[in-house]
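Schema walkthrough. Field components (list of strings):
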Amino acid sequence: MRALVFDGELRLTDIPTPVLQQGQALLKMRRGGICNTDLELTRGYMGFSGVLGHEFVAEVVEGPSEWLGQRVVGEINIADGDCDMCRLGVPSQCRHRATVGINGHQGAFAEYMALTTRNLYAVPDEVSDDQAVFVEPLAAALQILEAVHVSPRDRVVVIGAGKLGLLSAQVLRLTGAEVQVVVRSDHALPLLNKWRLPALRADDLPVNQADVVVDCTGNAAGFAAALDLVKPRGTLVLKSTYADLPQANLTRVVVDEVRVIGSRCGPFAAALSLLRQGLIDTQAMIAMRYPFEQALSAFDRAFQPGTLKVLLDF
Amino acid sequence: MRALVFDGELRLTDIPTPVLQQGQALLKMRRGGICNTDLELTRGYMGFSGVLGHEFVAEVVEGPSEWLGQRVVGEINIADGDCDMCRLGVPSQCRHRATVGINGHQGAFAEYMALTTRNLYAVPDEVSDDQAVFVEPLAAALQILEAVHVSPRDRVVVIGAGKLGLLSAQVLRLTGAEVQVVVRSDHALPLLNKWRLPALRADDLPVNQADVVVDCTGNAAGFAAALDLVKPRGTLVLKSTYADLPQANLTRVVVDEVRVIGSRCGPFAAALSLLRQGLIDTQAMIAMRYPFEQALSAFDRAFQPGTLKVLLDF
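Field assembly_structure (string):
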């Protein structure tokens, strides 16, 4: 089968179709989405080697009869179900987990992928492929609301108007809180206007006023801006992994008694539910789509600054 | 009156006795304690200039009749009572606060200090001067329990066996949780043994097992060790201000979904209550006492590594 492999170099190549293990289903890909993590992996993050991709919608073509023919999305953490974190009900933090297309598990950018049926979620008919491919990042945005209680009275600021920042802002505005988005350039302004989300310029921020700040930048400047924005005893949610070891003003965390909360993968069922109800605008976030055979061009496009979601059609 | 002043140089000198402002009481010092923050201030922290000192017990010698003759300790944050943080019930985070002996307010290392009566707490007869002088740092340690719910089932690790680390460990053991203390040297082992608190060696830490880690080191290595110790979804409490801008592994905060919580000043009433009940061993934490006239020698002693609390007798 055709697969997009990274092993120091990114290339489309032919590899054997996966052989199913106990408990797995064979998924035939329908659509994939390129995430910033995919871009980071091609720069060496996690030292990953193999088939890339973890945002996808697919059809089950082999496996348990109750799944056959179903259109599905898949939770990306493959948990052992047995460690202390799994027993605490947090399989996404399984001590021995593999992660689809990121660590220890083949990814979704191939004609077929094998995945444990425990990780599958059926996609309702009302949710299109274009919407369903956003389930994984939308779930990650929803994890903000699992990690933090956002009150309708809160002032919330999202830093970064990229893919994850815009999904986070869309999720946060559902709480009724006042949500603002810090932008570096103009590219996201039409979307923010459409969603009635005010934009803040990075060089003119309201100092120490926000109850909750969500940093979607993944860089030291974003973290510093977040500390400037958050009020004393406020909450700072870290939504992106950070390049290198950023210098961080931990003294300010102490003196202002800030809560810094790391947040990663989230609830797929809730993401599907919001999409089914039409509460999240994914259509406006699609920058471009490419046939899978042009995946290298798709990655080139995704690397261009300000590009929102690039899709792969299988 | 005699006062210990820092203005680039630390010296005992004569300055005018404070004139009372509206709402203040005049306090005649009985005993003071030297805090690491005092040491940092003499190295330029906060750019402070003036009378040092914020750990004290004193007698009210002038002011409202209901306070006259009382033995008191004093909350160190002077709040305006009017800003949003004060109205939220968090005067210690007042937007326009001064802080005794740290920022914008004369400190306690002088024969007399003027302080608003709003900040005073009467010391019960059962609490000695030697105990009462620990109220401020003990309250700061107790703030851990306001910031975080520590369950009796939790594994808790305190990093740093200095003054604040040992008070924090003493407070945390009252929760019934399993409390361990990371030590760099042997000096604290007799105290930890006395309190039945196991010591961990910094080079042999149980990786990612602790529900709650309290970093009392104030350095980048302490923060890194805390991230090594805390379990996924665990809580990391920052109890000390940090030198410079430490490099911090924020990616690990994201991936392990850690909660990092800054914690500063705490509840004086609860600290007095624990001391009155004899639940905190302060006597064992006194390294040395000096007459106030030998305050410079006291500071020299406090600067020696491994020194616990140095007291000043007025």
